[in-house]
Each structure stands twice: as C-alpha cells, then as structure tokens.
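User: Just a sanity check before I run the rest of the batch. Below are the structure tokens for the first item. I only need the designed sequence back.
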C-alpha cells in the first residue's frame, strides 16, 4: 500500500499501523507499531496497539506487558481507561481459561 517503507516519522508509522490493524493485517501493523517505538519509546499508543494485536493472537501475557508499559507512559486519561479495561478483561479471561483446562 505505501510506497515508502518505514520512514523515520513517528506519526506516519502509527497511522500506518492503525491502517493495517483495521485491515486485520497484524504482521504489517506490528512492524509499523514497533518502528514507532523505535523512533519514540516514550509514547504509549504503540504499546497499546501491539497489546491489541497480541490478544487477537492469544498471547495474553505479552499483551498485558505492553499495556502496562502504555499505562506507565500514558499522559491521557482516556487511554488509561482503555488500558485498565483491557487489562481487566484479559485477567478475567485468563482466569476463566485456567478453570476450563
């Protein structure tokens, strides 16, 4: 889709990652979000988005780790609410799955 591959622009990589995430192309979304982290590891959004990808892949532990990073970096109250909600659901789901096994 994009002619330029991973330019050194944080916003471009975030928007590209969101584009691919909405297309359910987790591999490309993950690449762009990781590039955004490489460019600026102090921003919470790429960690949050990678956590969403990891949940869809069933990797709940890694998702929680990324959401915790995002929570520590998050200046905005709205993102904090989303992260806490995701963590709560993930913990509940993990506990449920343990009971089922």
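Assistant: Here's the designed sequence for the first item:
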């Amino acid at each position: 889709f994009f002619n330029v591959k991973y330019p050194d622009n944080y916003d471009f990589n975030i928007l590209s990652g969101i584009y691919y995430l909405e297309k359910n192309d987790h591999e490309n979304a993950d690449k762009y979000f990781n590039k955004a982290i490489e460019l600026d590891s102090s921003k919470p959004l790429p960690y949050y988005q990678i956590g969403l990808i990891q949940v869809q892949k069933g990797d709940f532990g890694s998702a929680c780790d990324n959401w915790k990073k995002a929570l520590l970096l998050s200046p905005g109250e709205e993102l904090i609410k989303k992260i806490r909600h995701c963590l709560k659901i993930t913990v509940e789901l993990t506990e449920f799955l343990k009971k089922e096994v």
